[in-house]
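Fill-in record for Aluminum-activated malate transporter.
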Amino acid sequence: MNSPNQEKNLGILASKWDWVKGKMVNAAKTTKKIGTDDPRRVIHAMKVGLTLTLVSLFYYFRPLYDSFGESAICAILTVVVVFEFTVGGTLSKSLNRGGATVLGAAIGIGAKSLAAAGGERGEPVIRGFLVFIITGAATYTRFLPIVKRKYDYGGQIFIVTFSLVAVSGYRVNHILQMSHQRLATVLMGGAACILISIFVCPVWAGRDLHNLVAENIEKLADFLD
C-alpha cells in the first residue's frame, strides 16, 4: 500500500501533468486556428523556410563559401529580418537594408581613410570622434517624422554597418574586401526575399485593404437595413 506522503506526491504530479497537458492542447488549438483563419500564414512560413534554404547554399557549396567567407551569414540574417508577410513590406525593408548598407559601408570606408591621415597615435582619436558624430547624427535623424515613418529600419542598419566598418577597419587589413563581401551577400539575400515574395503565392496588402473595405461596407449596409 502507498503511504500518505506517496499518495500526496502522486496527486501533485498528476495535477502538474494535467496543467502541462492543458497548456499543450491550448497551444495546439491556437496554432491550428491561426493557420485555419488565414492559410496564407502557413504558406508564408514555408516561403521563409525556402528562402533560408536557398541562401544557405553560400555555406553548403565550397566555391560560394570561398568567395564570400564568413560574410555569407549576412545573407541569412537579411532573409530573417526583411522577409515580411506582404510583397510591399518585403520590398520596402529590402530596399531600406540595401541602401543603408551601401551608404553605411561607403561612409565607413571614408572615415577609415580620413582617420588614417592622423597617423598611428591620432587615428584612434579621429575614428572615435567620427563614430560619435556620425552615429549620433544618424540616431537623431530617426526622430524626424518622415524618417521615423519610412526609413527607421534603414537608419538602424546604417548605424550598424557604419560602426562595423569604421571600428573593425582599425584591426582588419582587408576592409574593402570585407565590405564588398558583406554588401554582396546582403543584396543577394534581399533579392532572394523579393523574388520569392513576388513569384511564390504573393500577398498584396492592397488586395487585403480592398477586401476589408468591402466587408465593412457590407456590415454598414446590414446595420442600416
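KEY FINDING: The chain has ten helices and no strands.
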